[in-house]
Design goal:
The protein is α/β, with parallel strands linked by helices. 51% of the residues lie in helices and 15% in strands. The structure holds adenosine-5'-diphosphate (ADP) and cytidine-5'-diphosphate (CDP). The site of adenosine-5'-diphosphate has 17 residues, from helix 1, helix 7 and helix 9. InterPro entries: Cytidylate_kin (IPR003136), Cytidylate_kinase_dom (IPR011994), P-loop_NTPase (IPR027417). Its EC number is 2.7.4.25. Keywords: ATP-binding, Cytoplasm, Kinase, Nucleotide-binding, Transferase.
Amino acid sequence: MSAVIVAIDGPSGTGKSSTSKAVAEAMGLSYLDTGAQYRAITWWMLSNGVPADDAEAVAAAAAKPVIDSGTDPAAPTIAVDGTDASGPIRSKEVTAAVSSVSAVPEVRSRITALQRAIAAEAPGGIVVEGRDIGTTVLPDADLKIFLTASPEARASRRSGELKGKDATDLSATREALIKRDAADSGRKTSPLKKADDAVEVDTTELTLEQVVECVVTLVEQAAAAKGGGTVGAEAAEAADEKAGQISK
Ligand SMILES: Nc1ncnc2c1ncn2[C@@H]1O[C@H](COP(=O)(O)OP(=O)(O)O)[C@@H](O)[C@H]1O
Ligand SMILES: Nc1ccn([C@@H]2O[C@H](COP(=O)(O)OP(=O)(O)O)[C@@H](O)[C@H]2O)c(=O)n1
């Protein structure tokens, strides 16, 4: 029996993580947050005095950190050299430095190999989310989704996560998002890009629940088309029910 592989890409704040986790959980698939891996390696560079904007120094150190990702969608984990890194990888410092570190080819080839190994080992299939999953990491994925949303919607979602937010936060968040998208889309190695065969879903006017329902349906279709996929009629029914319960 073959496992279904789903690639979900798109810029920041389009809903990749929330959607991927909910879909994976509803359908009994594993889940991999590849952004967390790039953030983890960036955190290691900053913690070990490697300047994020020094591509040569980053390349020389790229093989050093041991990155470990837990793929249970109900409780995903990320560890660096055996230490839980889930808190520090979300810091402003890491967010500001991650695009420089992730543009370094030695970093990408190492993390890409890790991602492919995790996907190959996922017993019942996996949802992998990032920027280059459909184009580079898993070009043979059974289903590729590219999520988009307006910069305004993405900034307001992101600043909604900050405590004590105000108008300054919103405009700063918007500027930081646009800057990061430009860096991720403009880099030479594996830029953020929609794969030619990806389904594009504009989430600007959709609730998270609607996006999840839409993706669950697409995964069911992909599994059925694959034939013998792990998402059977019973699991699909349970998934529909679960998707209906997920709220914003
Ligand atoms: N369709 C949606 N409508 C409103 N808010 C959303 C939607 N999708 C995600 N969110 C919220 O937006 C924020 C960013 O979502 P996230 O899944 O982390 O995006 P990404 O992984 O693409 O950066 C989260 O707080 C999430 O709850
Ligand atoms: N497949 C991926 C995933 C993330 N990344 C990099 O990692 C950064 C952080 O990714 P993320 O998914 O955690 O970002 P958010 O959109 O959640 O803020 C991105 O801005 C990219 O620079 C990448 O280069 N390739």
